[in-house]
Predict the structure.
Amino acid sequence: MIVVGAGLSGSEVAWGLARLRVPTLLITTSLDTIAALPGDGWAFAPPASGLLARLSVEAGGPDAWRARDLHRAVKRELEREGALHVLQSTVTGLLSDRDGRVRGVDTWEGVPREADRVALCVGSFLAARLRIGATEEVAGRLSELADDSLYEDLEARGVVFERRRLTLAGDDLSPGYEVEHSVLASGEVGEDGAMLRLPGLYAFGLCAGGSPDLQQSARAGVAALRTLAR
């Protein structure tokens, strides 16, 4: 299994699969932004089960989490799993067989990665444009650059998208900003997360049209195991 994106959804998916001894490759553009939150003080109730639920108990409850501490704790737990490998890379497209079934991904370095199934958990990073005032960047979150290649590959395969805007208020340490990004349009993803026109490909969380709420993103990752563990 390949999981693309190591936010809350992707981390939950990859950790859950590894705990079930499913060989899993988790690909993230930066090891420093695994389970990254928009900023400190973003406490939220974790799912009833899964990685964040376990860490919440250890930390004494979600109010004890700070962004840096959560990142370190999630990264530590992911790296402990023997069935899971975390790779810093950028996915630029999909690999598929003659029948059109997705069999892996291409990466920015030109190294193909093959798997039986691929799960997209890329949040707000599809065709992302971040704006602060009159300044625009190709980024899915503050200080996190995006790459349009995966979006363009999916679009070339006939996948339909919708545009959304995500607005985050500033705090004492960072300015407020807006991210305009693409999500999979209604009808592209089945109730089980499977991409209807691309067998072997799944999508969960915000990129699949889900809620930007942090709790819902984590829950989407936990719920994905019901499909992917089959």
About this structure: The mean pLDDT is 92. The chain has five helices and 14 strands.
